[in-house]
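Morning!

This is the sequence you dropped in the shared folder:
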Amino acid sequence: MKLVAYHLRKALLELFTTTKYRLILIGLVLIAAFISVSELGVAKLFTKIILHEGSLSHLRLFVYVSAFFLFFGATRGAHFLQRIYRVNVFDKAFKESKSEVSGFKDSWRWSLAFELTTLLSTFTQLGVIVIFFTIFNWKFGLINLIVLLIVFEIYGRLFKNQLEAQRGFVIASKNKSPVANHVRIGSRIKSGEFGILISGVALIFLLGALIYSSYIGEVSKSNAIVLFFGLRMQNSNLSNISTSLMRFARARTNSE
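The structure's back. Tokens below.
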């Protein structure tokens, strides 16, 4: 994953040449992390309502249900605004950039910016989820971290191979010998889908560890439900990272 981190940092410095817009981008990434925390909090509140609805007073049940829908709506709204606002940030950042690019390169620069923010946001969300899991149960959190490191190692190798493949496609295009579409597109899709398969295997293993932890009483039922939602969210993030990394490799090589 060192290669991934290197290219993410390099793309950030090249696309956002001023400190102002780098800070704004970091702010957008942190908002994405806050959204992930809020969604796990909403899941915790949901389990509290479901598991204890019979013992709650009507007033308390009304407060919990109202808070649930309020927080859920707030996370959806924040997610929408974060994704819309970044378009304006890209436009202003590119206009203030001193580097001049052609129309072809500019379209790839936009694509690279979208993938960069997606990856930074998703990695940040994963970091928050890991912390959240560790707070709930440090043993399960440690197991989850080890599994993620293994998955990231595989993702790093997939990214390296895809970067080399995409550079080969770019060179072939410049030499007037373009590669067939099914080869170019197929290479990216196969790598991305293989990464999704790996994340699925990791999810199965972690679900097994969660069920076992709940069975021996290491994790309470309410926390097990929240961790289950968290694992689904984590798996979705890993799948997004897998496909986004392959698109990032394509945009990176075409914008160089």
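Headline: The chain has a mean pLDDT of 82.

More detail when I'm at my desk.
O.
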